[in-house]
Amino acid sequence: MIQKPKAAYRKILHFDLDAFFCAVEEQHNPNLVGKPFAVGGRPDERGVVASCSYAARKFGVRSAMPMAHALRLCPSLVIVSSRHGNYGKVSKNVMAYLDDLTPLVEKVSIDEAFLDVTDLPESGLSIARGLQRTIRTKLNLPSSLGIATNKLVAKIANDVGKAAVRSSSPPNAITEVPPGEEENFLAPLPVTSLWGIGDKTAEKLDQMGLKTIGELADFPENRLIQLFGKYGHDLYRRSHGTDDRPITTSYGIKSVSHETTFASDVTEREELRGVLIRLSDRVARRLRKANLCGNTVRLKLRWADFTTITRQSTLQHATDQDGEIYRAVWELFVSAWHPSQAVRLIGVGVSGLGPPVRQLSFWEDDFRKEARLLSAVDELRNRYGDKIVIRASNMPVSKDRNDTRHKSS
Fold it and tell me: SS3 of 195, please?
């Protein structure tokens, strides 16, 4: 009798650093350990919570919450301003250990990644424990992991494992879903645990009497397709724990953007124009640093009532030039904004990216001169900060004369 080989299952890990920003801040200031604190912006400047300690979460504080609201929930909350550059450096150190373990690492964010460890001889649980121990020992950072046969279930397993630990300390959880147990694991969970199910879809499913993933899995696939179109097929597959997506080890940059939220609503045209110039400069600088150009310029505006709009235009040629980006976004702004309309947030973005391509023309010398000038400015700003070089158009104008600069913008 010929013995059939065992079915080959993938071993996928979902790795997540616990309250990453907070963990880094605790390294800088050990007095924060065990205290309710949040990393983010000031409450009087409409700051939001970027990350909060587990002690703060006991009071109901959550990421993305307005800092002012977080303070109302937890009056003793300590607010720590973020250090983004340092987080990036620490994240690179963490990801280096993941890359040493396997080349199949999909970096989802600064503190989160998927790993395919199928080819490693150890069990998924053993690998997860070893990785968690390494990150704790070498970098003094807490982490949690989910283990499953695919990315969908591994991520949900990690979320469930972390939520089950109710403590003022990081969970340091490891949760495994063995092969073949995907449906049983998912069945009792709410449908909102699945990727892609937002408030509207959840509300519609609730109206259909489908509150848990198990109830969704028992619903006929053809009916889901009738109700949700092609998305119904995805819902059915996910509810059964099916996910064939591979680990993606690299992503092309799809867009570059910068935005700013004002401490108080802005209604002055010239102030908004100055911000658009600065944001355009920053976007162009990042494009040049990445050796990219883009042909679609996007404007983002949020009014005082939190209504958010976006407008975009496509250029005749791709660019990485400050002035070209600014002129395009200014036209979008003028067409979207009414005089004295209060603006809460404003942003500039460029997409449709690709490597720079310069067409030889009568203006080639001008392109080269502009490129050399911008390269010099970028170098100065890299070494001495953004304020070392200021455009004349951003200089304050004396109030005793009329400012007509917007006419020639």
Answer: coil
Strand blocks (E) in 41-101: 49-52, 78-80
The CATH architecture annotation of domain 184-239 reads Orthogonal Bundle (1.10)
Please provide residue 294's backbone torsions phi and psi, each rounded to the nearest 5 degrees: -135, 155
User: When comparing pLDDT for 287 and 400, which is higher?
Assistant: 287
Q: What is the DSSP letter of 299?
A: E
For residue 381, pLDDT over 60 is answered with no
Q: What tokens appear for 146 in the block?
A: 């989910």
**Alpha-carbon span 117 to 123, nearest angstrom:** 9
183 tagged catalytic? no
Catalytic residue among 25, 112, 181, 324: 112
pLDDT of residue 383: 54
Which SS3 state, helix, strand or coil, does residue 22 take? Answer: helix
Structure-token match 């005793």, residue found: 400
Residues 6+ apart with CB under 8 A from 292: 253, 256, 320, 353, 354, 355, 356
Query: Which alpha helices (H) appear in 145-268, and where do they start and end?
Result: 151-164, 182-186, 199-207, 213-218, 221-228, 230-239
Cα Rg, the chain, nearest whole Å: 25
Q: What is the pTM of this model?
A: 0.69
Write down the CATH number for the domain with range 7-178. Answer: 3.30.70.270
Spans of all domains in the chain: 7-178, 184-239, 255-408
